[in-house]
Amino acid sequence: MSLVCLADFQAHARERLSKSTWDFIDGGADDCFTRDDNIAAFKRIRLRPRFLRDVSEVDTRTTIQGKEISAPIGIAPTGFHCLTWPDGEMSTARAAQAADICYITSTYASCSFEDIATAAPRGLRWFQLYAQPDRQLNKQLIHRAESLGFKALVITVDVPVAGNRRQDIRNNLDLKTNLLLKDLRSPKERNPTPRLQMTPVDPSICWNDLSWFQSITQLPIILKGILTKEDAELAMKHHVHGIIVSNHGGRQLDEVAASIDALTEVVTAVQGKIEVYLDGGVRTGNDVLKALALGAKCVFIGRPILWGLAYKGEHGVQEVLNILKKEFRTSMTLTGCRSIAEINQNLIQFPRL
Ligand SMILES: Cc1cc2nc3c(=O)[nH]c(=O)nc-3n(C[C@H](O)[C@H](O)[C@H](O)COP(=O)(O)O)c2cc1C
């Protein structure tokens, strides 16, 4: 049976993957309230289409941090792609390059950053950092990413500790025994006997540390995981270049707002001075359109990429991206938008509850 929407890939992955891998990907924190609300919140928003606007040509291209992409859709950072496909992130990177979109590579990618860059040398990639307690290691990781051509540094701020994922605890999930954790140091500095390590994220990191990151890299810095106007204002005060409104796919603090519900507060706070992106619960072209109408410059998808990998590796991810891009084009056409610039808040309404 052919898979025609992202939910089909989800159903296929659930059947195909082992229970512990499926649960690891699918899981949210605690009651999974926010994970599910990320999806439900999109469905509470209604569209207001406009007609008779000559939509014979529709252009989905846009830019992020000055780089052109084929559509405002990118790949959110997720770790351990080798869980779902043997060559993991190398397949993801190739698919992203073919689709001409941005791939945010996780600190906990199961392939080396060098292999990922070699697999898709022309692709637009950003590097996601979980700040490590060892400053030198952070510096090394960032410099490696920079020299491998990654174009932005995405610092994830919503993981001072890992969220409480009940299914992983029940399953006794141990990523170490799956040999998925890698030595984060540069190839030169590793021990002859590979030491698998995943140092915990540094919980002491705070706003004042941003100037240190800015002092060691030329890359634009983007904060991932901001949900409030207070933090959006601090992000601007500390001169970051972008914000990803995200609740980590509902995997960190449960019962926070759905990403799409938090977007307006952040967009209003930044007043167009920096780019705002969104991830969490984006599953259809209409979802992409709604996020853009509310002020996101681009959206990123997490779990659907892993479903695509589980289906057919690189080609599965390509299919997921092509379906979402095609749906988004249709959403634009049916609402009368010929270009990204024509997408605005008039396209949506929030029904009275
Ligand atoms: C299996 C899995 C692993 C993830 N790993 C990371 C990670 O390494 N770094 C990070 O910043 N976010 C990570 N995330 C969060 C995603 O970047 C993103 O915020 C979330 O998946 C978006 O929601 P969606 O899955 O509904 O699209 C992970 C999410 C999942 C599901």
From TrEMBL:
What cofactors does this protein use? FMN
Where does the chain bind glyoxylate? Answer: R165, H248, R251
| CDD domains with a match to the protein in the record | alpha_hydroxyacid_oxid_FMN
User: InterPro entries recorded for this chain?
Assistant: Aldolase_TIM, Alpha-hydoxy_acid_DH_FMN, FMN-dep_DH, FMN_HAD, FMN_hydac_DH_AS
The record's keywords, sorted A to Z, are:
Flavoprotein, FMN, Oxidoreductase
Organism's domain of life? Eukaryota
Query: Which family does the entry's similarity section mention?
Result: Belongs to the FMN-dependent alpha-hydroxy acid dehydrogenase family.
PANTHER family this protein is in?
A: 2-HYDROXYACID OXIDASE 2, S -2-HYDROXY-ACID OXIDASE-RELATED
Name of the protein: (S)-2-hydroxy-acid oxidase
Query: From what organism does this protein derive?
Result: Chrysochloris asiatica (Cape golden mole)
